[in-house]
Amino acid sequence: MHAGKKYSLKEFILWTRRDIYRLTILAVIPTILYHFCGFTFLSISWVPVALLGTAVSFIIGFKNNASYARLWEARQIYGGIINVSRSFGVMVRDFLWSKNKQQDVQVIFYRHFAWLTALRFQLRENRVWENMNDLRNIEYAQNYHTAEKTDKLEDVLAQYLSAEELAYILTKKNKATQIMALQSNHINKLATAGSFSDLQLQSLQAGIATFYDNQGKAERIKNFPYPRHFSSIASIMLNLFVFLVPYGLLNDFNKLGSGTLIEGYSIWLNIPFAILLTWVFNTLDVVGESSTNPFEGSANDVPITNISRTIEIDMRDMLDETNLPPALTPENNILM
Question: Global pTM?
Answer without folding.
Answer: 0.92
